[in-house]
Amino acid sequence: MAGGRKLELTEALTLGPGWRHACHALLYAPDPGILFGRIPLRYAVLMQMRFDGRLGFPGGFVDSQDSTLEDGLNRELREELGEAVSVFSVERTDYRSSHAGDRPRVVAHFYAKRLTLEQLEAVEAGAPRAKDHGLEVLGLVRVPLYTLRDGVGGLPAFLENSFIGAAREQLLEALQDLELLESGSVLGLKTRVHQ
């Protein structure tokens, strides 16, 4: 994986004091919408355009005042997405994976939180008023979870963007594990991305 070696959460939490921890979350919701009257959306999945021009998930570094990884993640979500995230909380049960990179010595923890479509839309609407909007976060984007007839438009084209760290791989794993796409469609995308 591009973001470093994968490790278990228990191992990640026992790494020495020279390591920093960062947490990020994929926020998603069932979406009954139909695009162009024929393409079912199925789910809305949020990512963000970062200050460096790459796509990633909302979140950031856990600080010493945060008592848990999840406390740090929820604080970062409020800073980056605004007060609409206060109606839910990312919990340990939402945890998905950890990846360690040697330079810098950072462990990136990844979570996925299912919301209602109304909660997700409130996050989208409130994000421009968040503390870090226009600074660390340049805007939110929805991941297109479909492929157009040309075989390129939609998710395949989206995956051609530049992603930070392991974000592309985390997205593909989450889409598959959470069954957010039609079964089998992620396999072909993973192969195409690694070519």
Write a structural description:
With 195 residues, the protein is an alpha+beta fold. Helix content is 27%, strand content 30%. It contains six helices and eight strands. Helix 5 (167-177) runs antiparallel to helix 6 (185-193).
Highest CATH level, the class:
Alpha Beta
Q: How confident overall, as mean pLDDT?
A: 90
CATH topology: Nucleoside Triphosphate Pyrophosphohydrolase
Q: What's the oligomerization state?
A: single chain
Written as H for each helix and E for each strand, in order along the chain, the element string is EHEEEEHEEHEHHH
Could you give me the name of the CATH homologous superfamily? Nucleoside Triphosphate Pyrophosphohydrolase
Overall body shape: globular
Question: What portion of the residues fall into strands of 2 or more residues?
Answer: 25-35%
Structural class: alpha+beta
Give the total of domains: 1
- The overall strand count is 8
| Tally of helical runs | 6
Cα radius of gyration in angstroms: 16 Å
Keywords:
globular, alpha+beta, 8 strands, 8-stranded mixed beta sheet, RNA-binding, Nucleoside Triphosphate Pyrophosphohydrolase, about 25% helix, about 200 residues, 6 helices
Detail the topology: elements first, then pairings.
Layout: E1 5-7, H1 9-13, E2 20-35, E3 39-50, E4 55-56, E5 59-61, H2 69-81, E6 95-101, E7 106-114, H3 117-126, E8 137-142, H4 155-158, H5 167-177, H6 185-193
Helix pairs in contact: 5-6
